[in-house]
Amino acid sequence: MLSVETNEYLTRVGPGTPMGQLFRSFWLPFLFSKELPEPDCPPVRVRLLGEDLVAFRETNGKVGLIDAHCPHRLAPMFFGRNEECGLRCVYHGWKFDTEGKCVDMPNEPERSNFKHKIQIKAYPTVERGGLIWAYMGAENELPEMPDLEFLLVPENHTYASKFMVEANYMQAMEGDIDSSHVSFLHSTPDNKFTGGGGGIVRSDRLVKFWIENKNPEFFVKEHDHGLLIGARRNAGEDTNFWRITHWFAPGYTIVPAEVGNPILCNIRVPIDDEQSWHIRIMWHPERPLNETELNAFQNVGVMFPELIPGQWKTKANKSNDYLIDREEQKTKNYTGIKAVTVQDMAMFEGMGTIIDRSKEHLGTSDTAIIQVRRILIRMAENLEKGKIPSAARNGKGYKARSASIEIPKNIEFEEGAKEYLTAQKWGL
Amino acid sequence: MLSVETNEYLTRVGPGTPMGQLFRSFWLPFLFSKELPEPDCPPVRVRLLGEDLVAFRETNGKVGLIDAHCPHRLAPMFFGRNEECGLRCVYHGWKFDTEGKCVDMPNEPERSNFKHKIQIKAYPTVERGGLIWAYMGAENELPEMPDLEFLLVPENHTYASKFMVEANYMQAMEGDIDSSHVSFLHSTPDNKFTGGGGGIVRSDRLVKFWIENKNPEFFVKEHDHGLLIGARRNAGEDTNFWRITHWFAPGYTIVPAEVGNPILCNIRVPIDDEQSWHIRIMWHPERPLNETELNAFQNVGVMFPELIPGQWKTKANKSNDYLIDREEQKTKNYTGIKAVTVQDMAMFEGMGTIIDRSKEHLGTSDTAIIQVRRILIRMAENLEKGKIPSAARNGKGYKARSASIEIPKNIEFEEGAKEYLTAQKWGL
Amino acid sequence: MLSVETNEYLTRVGPGTPMGQLFRSFWLPFLFSKELPEPDCPPVRVRLLGEDLVAFRETNGKVGLIDAHCPHRLAPMFFGRNEECGLRCVYHGWKFDTEGKCVDMPNEPERSNFKHKIQIKAYPTVERGGLIWAYMGAENELPEMPDLEFLLVPENHTYASKFMVEANYMQAMEGDIDSSHVSFLHSTPDNKFTGGGGGIVRSDRLVKFWIENKNPEFFVKEHDHGLLIGARRNAGEDTNFWRITHWFAPGYTIVPAEVGNPILCNIRVPIDDEQSWHIRIMWHPERPLNETELNAFQNVGVMFPELIPGQWKTKANKSNDYLIDREEQKTKNYTGIKAVTVQDMAMFEGMGTIIDRSKEHLGTSDTAIIQVRRILIRMAENLEKGKIPSAARNGKGYKARSASIEIPKNIEFEEGAKEYLTAQKWGL
């Protein structure tokens, strides 16, 4: 439970808001590189942290991210001409480079100095791991890119998609770090996992632990970059079964995976207060994804739901009640909804676009959620006092994996899972 | 004419508003029983008096009406599992019975006492006359169900449908108690009634009275449960023709019917400030509806307009100008709009969702409307002072019919119509 | 650049706003006569300066423009019966003539005097040049109709259409008086004009001037009725090329045309703060439009864009990104958008419905825009002090044309273009 004021603090991300400033102190992924497939290709509309922007790839391949409106008379840059290292407004021909400099102003007298006084808002970008990232902060010193493992492995180790979510980033992210819902939302009435299909092999023994034991105990360990979350279930006389999740500021959750299987990272990026991106990345730390895995991700529609063609919007969505099948719900699938991501979406979009956390009733299973809220709020408060989050200055801290393993009872979970929780193989 | 403030008082029905409280002191019909056709069937979204709720029929057939959101983290109960005498949230498995008690909380430790502290908002319901009714008030003592005749007769005496109206309940209800508009809105240019068709026989003599005499005089008699409204027209040297309407708090109007024909009751229930339900019930007090009547109601589309399949929304509606046919309007039908209900809807939806009554110019024909507004406002004011409306504690007062009859001039109308205005045949 | 307050002053046009009052002191065109094709035809919904109205043509052919709502209980007059010299509300039969007088009130007692106290809001109208005009002001003395040439020539000299624009009138009109954007927005990458096609002949020499010289110098001359705007480009040793635009209060722009070709007038009429009408009229001052011209206007879709059938909305519009063709944009057309009007629309609708002019950066090319804003604001301020704009009392001042001509360098532009800038041939 949060007060109405604290809830506002946590959820508002527009320009000038404390939480918006916190997000602006990190690199944020906002497009796939393939959405700007070649130099001088059509620009793309971007809405990020409540700001309307336009992204374009200029003649040399660099990506610009600039204000959606020309500073002259606010004409839309989206309709601009992407030509010769800059985006040119079609209203009067003003042209801007990726740094936001006005490099041509053909409608003013040649002797005019006006061009040199004009700047369009522009944010630095980088490309890494098939994603385009922006830094929207005010600091001169750029943050470090996070050394997340899926950004370091060869491209053929990874598979990614993204989904537009009609809800505030935070209630979506709370689902990611909530290890107890998997035993319900993603299960079947006869205690199977609904996220399977497509031939990816999971250990029946391990799945049985987390599906059948529905009330794990939670242990959290805060660190500079975020939170390590252990959900403990009894696995026999001598061992416990642990699902260990890694959450990193400001929006990364590495979901517990069985050793040997691809690992999943969910990224939450605020579009504005009431919408957010869900970028979903699977990667194998040791080898390229095999055909079975790629087929499961691309064609089966369970790990990665089907999209409306031409949109980053799932076919099963709020407007059609996520295509719930009530007969399936009675017999085969706890929710009657097909894809795991869409099952989650039905929950957090169904709360309304911004949940009123003053009405919640949290239990012990919400330990990690409570803690992540605290971390984000504390980071934003520190930033208001001038303290840049150390995670933004240290990309190495993001080299992590998650784990879904058995550990002897007499061994502490972080210690017992140590070799599975870091990603030291790949470096920069 | 009302002041802007009084208009607000009259029209606002959300939680905490005086008029909302008045509605909350009565039983309110909100679903047909057939919308929850069997135990453990899919739940149904309900919006009532500005509150978002979910209705479900549990394993023993009882209907629950609970908050749309789980008290845990506000996940949507609509997607819940209706199983074993309760509705279970699919996010973390919390389960609630029809009283709102949390009867299972499987994601918390077994030793936990948390479950016993959790309650979901739940309203009592009853089923009567094919309708499901809710009591949304705070009083411990339940109101009495109104002994409306259509709730007492055998089921095959009745026919009902409902329509979603994009307007505040009050301006819709004002049409129900407005006996003078029938001579215009529901007439033809050559003075016929447009509500006919399908073979139901009406007295030409009586219809002629109310179609041709367009300016009746109004007489009203207030009583504990509402208002008796007489519209008088001259019917010859010795007799007057009277259309006598019964209005009952908070939202029932029994429309004048010829003796021997089925009687109509319009019920207005606020969905929220800007939308309302129109529940429309025809019943015959003495016998089952015959085939002619059923066919006229089900298939002719005049007394009961055609619906968009799968919705309680008329095919002819605001978005398509009620399918007005301007050529028909010139020659055959005063409005060019087919169904009587839709003719009404065109009027009160066309006013805007909440009419600004400070701009009205009321005449003598608006006598009943003025009086009903006063009654509702007085009842709400009394309730604010702690006085529960006596109608809510006395169901017997609702045993009424309406009438459309000739009465000798020397006899007072209530006296002259006495035998037709009460429904003593059917009891509980 | 304007302050936020001045921008509000300039753009708000609802009842009681200063700029709204200014518009209300002139005759405003709001419908084509053909939209009310015959006596007693169906009424038409009109929204003008933020007021909801209904227009109807009564039995004698006169056009009424009255409040959208009946003064009785605010029922919608749009569904009314247009019969025997008045529009009759179908709810209770109240009937109003074009002056707004209540001429029948059949639901009240015959002896009642109520009818004579009732008036519906009604505005005077006139028909001229195939358009219906309204005067929405409070003054008893009517303004003079503007003697715009296209209102004076025979009907077969003219061609007109109109388009609903999702933007405030002012940012649309700013495009009309902005002579420098034509060299960009309406050009091709190889310096041709995109507004051609359909066989209308333009001088290559002149087009080349304004397409290739993209930074003309601006000269403005204010007069009682508006602004004369000259855009000067060098045309050789001894002559300059001038595009001379005439802007008239409150919303007429006569666009520069080559002598001998049809002339274009763009009219901007505020629907409300966030929408406006673009009425676009071509006329030939000397002769009927020929077949080539009519075909170019009706069928080619460049000077007059294609409409959605049954609507005054262009097929290429905001919801489909104006059907931009990015490949065309690269090679054949500066914008990739087909029609000139739609190219403009993409710009000013893309700014948002009301541009925030405090964020602009204006240059010397914006001279005319700055001046027209000043004139409108000054006129509105004077009107607040009781001074009716003299243009509203002198229709003769509107007898003007525009020009696109070469003038010897030693001759002042208004002097040099004199014979082309006035329209003395046609009188009243």
Task: Kindly describe this structure.
3 copies of one chain form a homotrimer. With 428 residues, chain A is α+β, with helices and mostly antiparallel strands. Chain A is built from 11 helices and 19 strands. In chain A, the strands form 4 sheets. In chain A, strands 12, 13, 14, 15, 16, 17, 18 and 19 form an 8-stranded antiparallel β-sheet that branches. In chain A, strands 2-3-4-9 form a 4-stranded antiparallel β-sheet, with no helix packed on it. In chain A, strands 5-6-7-8 form a 4-stranded antiparallel β-sheet, with no helix packed on it. The longest helix of chain A is centred in the last third of the chain and has 18 residues. Chain A is globular, with a radius of gyration of 23 Å. Chain A starts with a helix and ends in a 7-residue tail after the last helix. The interface between A and B is medium-sized, with 37 and 26 residues.
